[in-house]
Amino acid sequence: MINGNKRKQRTRQLLTxxxxxxxxxxxxxxxxxxxxxxQGQLVDPPKAESGSGQGAAQTKRTSYPLKVKDATGKEFxxxxxxxxxxxTSPSETEMxxxxxxxxxxVGVSDFCDYPAEAKSKPKLGSITKPNEEAIIAAGADLTLxxxxxxxxxxxxxxxLKVNLFQVQPKTIDDVLAxxxxxxxxxxxxAEAEKLVNQMKADRQQVVDAVKNLKPEQKKxxxxxxxxxxTVGSGEFLSELIETAGGINVYGSEKGYVKLSExxxxxxNPKVILYPNNLxxxxxxxPLDQLIRERSGWDQIDAVKEGKLAGIDKDTTSRPGPxxxxxxxxxxxxxxxxxxx
Length: 340
Hints:
Structural class: alpha/beta
Shape: globular
């Protein structure tokens, strides 16, 4: 009986050993086998490695040929990154320089003045109707233009064999998307993503600063970006006011609007925004002085309480890489106690 018990005990020990070895082999095999996606296993995404093989993240590069459509629906095929670039729009010129492409810029509009290096580039005429001869002479592989150029001018330049790429941003997100597209076209994706992330952080800073405002605490805002002109919904300038926690008194109207002095009095805004150092061509007065002296406007709360806030004209009116800086300016003008 005792011998029988010993035999059973040895048998159990042997089985335990065999099972343990089998389990070890099975686990080792699972660890070494390739994991197949969609088979109940988690698969790590591939990690880009640098040429040195040290596992460092590799800079994202554009794969050519690249197909891209512009805002007009025209399809462009790029076999490589354009080497000679022209711009007829200050916003797009700023984007090119922000992406480190200043040395490739062969021409800009007469109004492209930022950064300082842009001022020394060959001039191509106005924003809406550039000098055709100058654009052709620039010999650009790609010419960028923005919202100010109308369709007939775009079509005319294309008939002249100008490779014209147009963007038409209406929102901050449009601006961010355009930057990423340019990053792809010009093989500057890392630079574009870094810039976009910073702009998103700037926007979030403003959103966080005003997020606790109750509806009754939100201020009515009137903006006069040019003497006699304001903006309604559907344009990025109105979006800046709303993102900053303000209520655009012209928000019920669409696009750019010639202001009605009586309407502004009736709306009674708490804050009036205007571009710093802007002189009215007719009266030769600074715009803020013109606003204060209008008949009946001394009864508007913003005027009575001295809540006229000057903002930078370029950062708030150009849908380019400084647009979120313009957002901060507008937010400080409306809620200086909240946005620092």
